[in-house]
């Protein structure tokens, strides 16, 4: 793999807004893409892993999930963002980051930019909205 990849849930409006922020504000050489459009096999990821948390697959094959993936993304950026990534890896911060991340993941449909589809597992989203994200009966 030549480029590191940061994978998020493209069916979630909150996650997509966060990815847009990354693309606009955080200068990184990593690809930032929704898992629904990623070659998960080539990345060594599963749908279940991607539904559970954002994922980082480094160009060197390293992997991380959740706040650890965010820290790796920040590490691959400009100095001020690298400092934020270092802070996120600081043991007391990291210990608090995982419960906070899980809370956000469970409640992302309630957060700004979130939609009801954000709270559904992929199988249920596809059943209701189809693989394209549009309602199945339209």
TrEMBL record:
It comes from the Bacteria. It holds the Pfam family DCC1-like. InterPro entries: DCC1-like. One of its GO terms (molecular function) is protein-disulfide reductase activity. This is Predicted thiol-disulfide oxidoreductase YuxK, DCC family. It comes from Micromonospora mirobrigensis.
